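Handout, section 3.2

Students often ask what a structure token actually looks like in practice. Rather than define it abstractly, here is a full record for Type II toxin-antitoxin system PemK/MazF family toxin. The first block is the sequence as you would receive it.
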Amino acid sequence: MNPSKFGRGDVVMVNLDPTAGHGQKGMRPALVLSTSAFNALAVVRLDLVY
């Protein structure tokens, strides 16, 4: 998926491989917290997994 298509509140699937230690790995859902305007400009993705 193109990052410019993400909007705040969207749930997207992200690949968390590789991991270190006991972290979650594989395909996991992630919530987009940044604004759509920022997502259209940014290439960096930050994931919050709990």
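Discussion prompt for tutorial groups: The chain has a mean pLDDT of 73. How would you have guessed this from the sequence alone?
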